[in-house]
Amino acid sequence: MRPNIVSEAGLHTRLGQWWEGIPFLTSAVVIVCGTIYLVCLLVGYDSFVEICFLPSAIISRFQVYRIYTSVIFHGSLLHVMFNMLALVPLGSDLERIMGSVRLLHMIILLATSNAIFHLLIALVVAHNPFHSDQYLMNECAIGFSGILFSMIVIETSLSGVQSRSVFGIFNVPAKWYAWILLVVFQLLMTNVSLLGHLCGILSGFAYVYGLLNFFMPGTSFYSTIEASSWLSSCVRRPKFILCTGGNSSGYIPTYSSQNTTLSGLISGNLWRNLSSWMPQRETSAQSTQDNRFPGRGRTLNSERSQMVPFSNSDSSLQARLLDNSNPAHPSDMAAVGPENGRYMEEFTHASMIT
C-alpha cells in the first residue's frame, strides 16, 4: 500500500495564493506602481523633475497634476518594494471594510489633503517674518509613503488596539505609533521627506476626526459608479469588493458622527462603531426564544445530570396541552389503559420539548 506523502506547497503556489488574497484595488495599485517603476528603469528616467511634488511649480505654474503623479512614482527598487509591501496589509484591511470604489476615493482624497497640508507648511516656512527658508518650496518629493502614513493612522484608530509593535522589536502606545515610525524612518533612512510623511499623518487624523466628511459622498454615489457599464468588467472580478454595508453616511466609522460635540469626537468608541457597520452573523435558532413556547428547553437523550428542570410555566403548558386534548376525543382517552396512558403522556411531553 502506498504511504501518504505530505508535501509543502512550492514558492510559486504560495505566491499565487498570497496574491489571490489581495483585494482588487490594492493589487491594482501595486501593479501600477511596480509597472511605472520598471518602465522608468528600462527607459532610464530617474530625474522625476517633471512629475514630482514640487511646491514652487504647483503654485507658480499651477501644475496640479503633480499632486497625483508624485504618488505613483518611486525613486529606487527598495523604495517601491517597501511601500508596496506596506500597502498590501493596510490597503487590504481597509478595502475589505470600505469596498474598492470607496477606497479609491479615499486615496484620492488623502493625496489631495496631503498636498494641501504640504503646500501650507511650505508657504509658512518660506514667507514667515522671523526666518524664511525656500528649501521646502523647492523640495521634490515622490512616493506612496505619504498616503501610507495616513492609512496607518486610520487603520490604527479603527482597530482599537492599545499598543503596536515597531518592526517586531518593541511595542509603543497605538496613539503614538505613526509618530514613532516618522522618527524611526528619519533616523534610519536617508533622503526621506519628513514633511511628506508628516502631512500624511495630519491627513490621517483629519480623516479620523471627521474633518474630511464633507468631501465623502453617500453610499448611493458609490453604488451608482459600481453599476456603471464602464466598470462592469472590474466589478465581475472575484477580488472586487462592492461598497455595501450599513453605514449610510458614506464614510467608514471615525471618532465623529453626525451632530456630535468635540468631546464626543475624542471619546468615541471606534471599534464599536466598526462592529456595528460590518455584517453580523445570523443568530442561531437555539439562542433565540420563541414567545409561543415559554420556558427553557433541553437536548433530547441528554444525561439526567445535565437536564434543566422545568419551571412552572412548563408544567402549566403541559397541563393545558393535556386538557385541550381530552375533550377532542373522549372515547379514545377512555379506551387508553394505565400503561398506554403513561406512554401517551411521555409522548406528549417529548413533543412539547421538541
UniProtKB/TrEMBL annotation:
Entry similarity comment: Belongs to the peptidase S54 family.
Gene3D superfamilies: Rhomboid-like (1.20.1540.10)
Domain Peptidase S54 rhomboid: 62-212
Regions that span the bilayer: 21-45, 65-91, 103-123, 135-154, 166-188, 194-215
UniProt keyword list: Membrane, Transmembrane, Transmembrane helix
InterPro entries: Peptidase_S54_rhomboid_dom, Rhomboid-like_sf
Record's keyword annotation contains Transmembrane helix: yes
Record's subcellular location: Membrane
Lineage: Eukaryota, Viridiplantae, Streptophyta, Embryophyta, Tracheophyta
Name of the featured protein: Peptidase S54 rhomboid domain-containing protein
Molecular function GO labels: serine-type endopeptidase activity
Coiled-coil ranges from the UniProt annotation: none
Stretches the record annotates as Disordered: 281-310
A GO cellular component entry from the record: membrane
Ranges of Polar residues composition bias in the record: 281-291, 299-310
Source organism of this protein record: Liquidambar formosana
Membrane disposition: Multi-pass membrane protein
